[in-house]
Amino acid sequence: MEKSFNERWSVGDNRGYLDNYAEEVSYCDPILKELIVGGDKVIAHLESIYSNPHIVREYLNPAVSVADSGNFAVLGYNLNTYVLDDNGNERHRRAWNATEAYRLIDGEWHIVHSNWGFTQTATGAIASWRARGLRRVSVTRRSSLLGPRSRWRPGRRG
Fold it and tell me: Residue 110 and residue 90: Cα distance in Å, rounded?
């Protein structure tokens, strides 16, 4: 499905993606500071920034994980995009990391979360708690994904 959406977009038809977003889709865009929630808002955002959908896409390294229930799947992949320059030649525009979460809704797969990021955003060394000389401290955080309470320390898994 995803590949067909990219192929459609490459010939100027971005509706494959737009029509497949669930009503409650959430969308992470690397050019925005905040998450967008809701199909109408996501579509309005995408239509506002892509005036020319004729972008050639090279779909790479797809990896799919499907829930045991069979009604939820996550797809991750890399995507290179190319545009035509003033001479009509393709030139590499951008490299992306993409993650799409799909849910089976009324017998059809729909995107319920979409996350896009640039493959290379850091231009220098990335600071970490060690690089900054910070000491290890215990942090308690609450997360619905981790359960009621989780103890976490930098440098320790789990």
Answer: 32
